[in-house]
């Protein structure tokens, strides 16, 4: 029995690994264009380039590991059934459980790895990816600034420069209008300035020399103040646009602790519940897809690997369509997250157990 278990594990794992590589590569190729554009445009060093290419992988593996488990199960068992190995084993009195146990061991391993990716690795990688993209875009800001042009790309600031040196970070004849407070105007004039990039904080710091700061409140025209300075610093926050806003608001980037905190906030409760259930439900696909794949693979005697591959694609398509609809309805509040995100798992688990029960009673059959 141990020999048969090792043989089934070897047969299914080899096809599972191949399916994992193929599916991961296919999904990764869709993001390759954006990554290459980011690397080329910002002249990213080799080490950071490797990091950029690795960061999307955890979120891709969340989808491809369950697919790979199903592919390994169906193709491996279909090949054994087509070659008569399943019939020979059943003829010696070996039950269906001998085929179920090693495949479930592979499926549970896939579930554990996917759960680890879903709960910890993928959100951390998404946050890191967002920070790197923001830092790379911020590093190009000095090269986009032109002299003798009003610059409005910084939030709540209006800049004008008489001249910019070849390094692009040293300015002369600096004019800055601070419009952070809409009812009050603050203007800073300086002979020179140096722009320093603080990538870790997604901002720049402008070191100004020899200048004055003018404060004027339209509601109090008699109060006009002028302050001279030899050296001063003005923080300039980089406008992160939609990427920064989505990172602050989307549960995708949150840790489990942060999601749990949002669950207790009425405004964010629905989105947090949806994200938590999605992270927990998706890894279960590795088990429920294997439950459906075992009876289909054992009972397939025509076509072998080709039939197993076609069934894998069909089942993956059906499962992820159900999951996508459930996720969409849950986000809209039309169904409970427990129903929307767990319905596909429940349906596939029930179908797999029914087919396994029938297979135990009637034995193998031709498709």
- Helicity range: 55-70%
Order of helices and strands: HHHHHHEEEEEHHHHHH
List the strand order in the largest sheet.
1-2-3-4-5
Class by helix and strand content?
Answer: alpha+beta
Q: What do the pLDDT scores average to?
A: 85
Question: How many helical elements?
Answer: 12
Distance between the termini: 27 Å
| Low-confidence residue ranges | 241-248
Determine Rg (CA atoms, Å). Answer: 30 Å
Count the strands? 5
Largest sheet: 5 strands, antiparallel
Proportion in β-strands: 15-25%
Overall outline: elongated
Describe the structure.
The structure is a single chain. The chain contains 12 helices and 5 strands. The chain is α+β, with helices and mostly antiparallel strands and 367 residues long. A 5-stranded antiparallel β-sheet has the order 1-2-3-4-5, with no helix packed on it. The longest helix has 43 residues, at 97-139. The protein starts with a helix and ends in a 5-residue tail after the last helix.
TL;DR of this structure?
This protein has 367 residues and is of the alpha+beta class. Helix content is 62%, strand content 16%. A five-stranded antiparallel β-sheet has the order 1-2-3-4-5, with no helix packed on it.
Supply the key terms.
single chain; 367 residues; alpha+beta; 5-stranded antiparallel β-sheet; 5 strands; 16% strand; elongated
């Amino acid at each position: 029995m141990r020999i048969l278990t090792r043989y089934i594990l070897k047969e299914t794992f080899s096809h599972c690994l191949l399916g994992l590589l193929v599916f991961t590569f296919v999904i990764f190729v869709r993001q390759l264009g954006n990554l290459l554009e980011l690397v080329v445009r910002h002249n990213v060093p080799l080490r950071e380039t490797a990091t950029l290419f690795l960061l999307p992988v955890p979120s891709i593996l969340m989808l491809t590991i369950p697919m790979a488990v199903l592919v390994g199960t169906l193709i491996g068992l279909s090949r054994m059934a087509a070659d008569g190995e399943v019939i020979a084993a059943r003829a010696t009195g070996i039950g269906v459980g001998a085929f179920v146990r090693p495949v479930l061991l592979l499926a549970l391993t896939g579930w554990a790895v996917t759960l680890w990716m879903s709960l910890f690795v993928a959100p951390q990688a998404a946050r890191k990816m967002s920070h790197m993209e923001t830092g790379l875009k911020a590093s190009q800001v000095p090269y986009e600034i032109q002299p003798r042009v009003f610059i409005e790309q910084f939030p709540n600031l209006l800049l004008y420069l008489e001249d910019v040196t070849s390094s692009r970070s040293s300015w002369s004849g600096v004019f800055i209008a601070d419009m952070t407070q809409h009812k009050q105007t603050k203007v800073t004039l300086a002979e020179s300035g140096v722009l320093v990039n603080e990538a870790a904080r997604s901002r720049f710091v402008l070191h100004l020399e020899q200048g004055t700061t003018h404060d004027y409140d339209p509601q109090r025209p008699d109060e006009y103040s002028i302050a001279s300075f030899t050296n001063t610093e003005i923080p300039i926050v980089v406008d992160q646009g939609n990427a920064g806003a989505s990172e602050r608001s989307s549960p995708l980037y949150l840790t489990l602790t942060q999601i749990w905190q949002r669950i207790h906030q009425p405004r964010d409760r629905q989105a947090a519940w949806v994200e938590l259930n999605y992270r927990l439900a998706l890894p279960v696909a590795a088990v429920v897809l294997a439950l459906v794949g075992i009876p289909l693979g054992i009972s397939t005697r025509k076509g072998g690997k080709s039939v197993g591959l076609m069934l894998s694609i069909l089942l993956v398509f059906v499962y992820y369509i159900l999951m996508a609809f459930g996720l969409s309805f849950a986000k809209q509040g039309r169904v409970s997250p427990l129903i929307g995100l767990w319905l596909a798992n429940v349906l596939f688990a029930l179908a797999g157990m029914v087919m396994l029960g029938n297979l135990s009673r009637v034995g193998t059959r031709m498709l």
